[in-house]
Amino acid sequence: MLALLVAVFSFWDAHQERAREDRQRAAAERRTAAEAIFLLRADAEADGQRLRLEPVHGDQVIQSQSFVFPPQVRGGVVRTTGNARIEADWFADGLRRAARKTGTEAGGGDLRLPVGVTTSFLSDGQTVTDQSIYLIGYTLKPRLLLGPKVELQGLSLARRGVSGDLGAKVAAMWP
């Protein structure tokens, strides 16, 4: 009888240990999968005239980026290499023109501009490409001359893993 109790206890203990190891392995796999996702964060610099971009995961290194804006704001693609950033000068004139057309030059609140971002980055020694749509947060500050000043606030993810015509998808998100 005692031998049977010892055997049952040993079996139960082994089962608990195996279940604990399975939970730890699954948690580690979830962390690894989450780190493989590319996501940008941005910090405003130069009085809101530039957003410095960095990957959320520190082991990913941005190599180059291409930015696509709504054609009403800026035609063509902006490309950067090494210095990941978004500059207000790239699209400020287009935002001012749009504000004149809609009568929103006086500003008032946070506004959003969709931008398609294609990023080539290194992760675990491999070059990977991500294509996503982000929203640039900005405000319009009224000025006496030259129209409102565009001040960049930050960046938020709108859609990940975008395929197809990125420009058309960004244009569809612009009012």
The number of helical runs is 3
Share of helix, binned: 25-40%
Total of domains: 1
> Which strand-content bin applies to the residues?
35-45%
- What's the total count of β strands? 8
Radius of gyration: 24 Å
Average pLDDT works out at 88
Explained architecture:
The structure is a single chain. The strands form two sheets. This protein has a five-stranded antiparallel sheet, covered by helices on one side. It has three helices and eight strands. It has helices at residues 2-36, 92-102, 166-173; strands spanning 40-45, 50-55, 61-68, 77-81, 85-87, 111-123, 126-141, 149-159. The protein has one domain. It starts with a helix and ends with a helix.
Compact overview of the structure:
By secondary structure, the protein is of the alpha+beta class.
Question: What are the key terms here?
Answer:
175 residues, alpha+beta
Give the secondary structure arrangement, pairings included.
Layout: H1 2-36, E1 40-45, E2 50-55, E3 61-68, E4 77-81, E5 85-87, H2 92-102, E6 111-123, E7 126-141, E8 149-159, H3 166-173
